[in-house]
């Protein structure tokens, strides 16, 4: 049996801008049996609105996921998987880790001035490679399904078939632009995985690296505050919606830990919705990912 987590970290991710720009990203954490508290970014630019850059958030994750840190469950509001077949269709690679690293390499590409761009520019660059039908759906291409049809790639992952309010990681249109979270999230995760390969970090990305809850080390999972019912309202004045989501993620994890239902949330049953013909359910799930709690 896996030992309990000693610390819980919730991250409300933000995706479109560059890695060093302040964004509406929020982090909260709690020790086991404690209460959620906001983690304030280094040198906040304002007192009432505390903005992180994603580079700062990556540095924090590196600290919390270090080998000698208390066992931590990190729940992040972002998808780091795409529908089955996206690896081959986008980059001609095979497997989830290869997809993450290829997306990160694309995002790390510098422009003519040697400046690494934003997740927005990365999405635009990928779309430009597919003039017959772009993968990332914008307002201008909202009714164009040629990429999904021609490459036999679904618009939704299997888990999104079960969560009506969930948005596809291909989406970059009006409202919640989840695709930017996926691009920037894969960039960050690729860097964390590289640090783990060097022995500096110890974590498991669930379920991409296996459905079974590991018996040691930290664990990173995808979450979705709206599906968790995790937004907190009775919090300090001036707290932003992103900060409430981060606090709510941690509150949900603490509640599940207290009532003993957290570990069972990692035990999933095969479902018929969104299944790819000829692909084992476990293999599809480990490629696409899953939202903890669904």
Please characterize this protein's 3D structure.
The chain has one domain (1-294). 32% of the residues lie in helices and 11% in strands. The chain contains 9 helices and 8 strands. A hairpin with a 5-residue loop joins strand 3 and strand 4 (37-38). It starts with 6 loop residues before the first strand and ends in a 6-residue tail after the last helix.
What's the alpha carbon Rg, rounded to whole Å? 18 Å
Sequence stretches where pLDDT stays below 50 over 5 or more residues: none
Strand order of the largest sheet: 4-3-1-6-8-7
Query: How much β-strand is present in the residues?
Result: 5-15%
**How would you sum up the global shape?**
globular
Spell the H/E element sequence: EEEEEHEHHHHHEEHHH
Number of domains: 1
Which structural class fits the helix and strand makeup? alpha/beta
Describe the sheet with the most strands: 6 strands, mixed
Query: How widely separated are the two ends?
Result: 22 Å
Quote the average pLDDT.
90
Number of strands: 8
How many helices in DSSP terms? 9
Which range best describes the helical content: under 10%, 10-25%, 25-40%, 40-55%, 55-70% or over 70%? 25-40%
Give a short overview.
This protein has helices spanning 54-64, 86-91, 96-108, 119-128, 146-150, 178-197, 225-228, 241-258, 281-288, and strands at residues 7-12, 22-23, 26-31, 37-38, 52-53, 72-76, 203-205, 218-222. The chain has 294 residues and is of the alpha/beta class. The chain has one domain (1-294).
């Amino acid at each position: 049996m896996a030992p309990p987590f000693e610390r819980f970290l919730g991250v409300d991710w933000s995706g479109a801008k560059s890695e060093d720009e302040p964004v509406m990203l929020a982090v909260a954490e709690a020790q086991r049996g404690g209460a959620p508290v906001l983690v304030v970014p280094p040198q906040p630019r304002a007192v009432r609105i505390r903005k992180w850059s994603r580079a700062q958030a990556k540095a924090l994750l590196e600290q919390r996921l270090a080998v000698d840190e208390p066992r931590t469950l990190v729940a992040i509001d972002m998808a780091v998987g795409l529908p089955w077949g996206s690896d081959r269709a986008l980059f001609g690679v095979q497997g989830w880790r290869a997809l993450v690293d290829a997306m990160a390499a694309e995002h790390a590409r510098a422009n003519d001035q040697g400046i690494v761009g934003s997740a927005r520019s990365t999405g635009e660059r990928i779309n430009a490679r597919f003039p017959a039908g772009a993968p990332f759906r914008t307002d201008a291409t909202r009714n164009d399904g040629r990429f999904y049809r021609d490459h036999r790639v679904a618009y939704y992952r299997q888990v999104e078939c079960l969560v009506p309010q969930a948005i596809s990681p291909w989406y970059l249109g009006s409202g919640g632009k989840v695709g930017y979270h996926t691009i920037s999230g894969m960039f960050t995760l690729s860097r964390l995985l590289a640090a783990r390969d060097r022995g500096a970090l110890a974590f498991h990305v669930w379920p991409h690296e296996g459905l079974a809850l590991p018996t040691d080390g930290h664990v990173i999972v995808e979450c979705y505050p709206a599906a968790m019912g995790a937004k907190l309202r009775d919090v300090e004045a001036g707290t932003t919606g992103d900060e409430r989501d981060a606090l709510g993620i941690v509150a949900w994890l603490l509640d599940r830990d207290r009532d003993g239902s957290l570990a069972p949330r990692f035990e999933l049953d095969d479902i018929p919705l969104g299944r790819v013909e000829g692909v084992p359910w476990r293999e599809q799930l480990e490629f696409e990912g899953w939202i903890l709690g669904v």
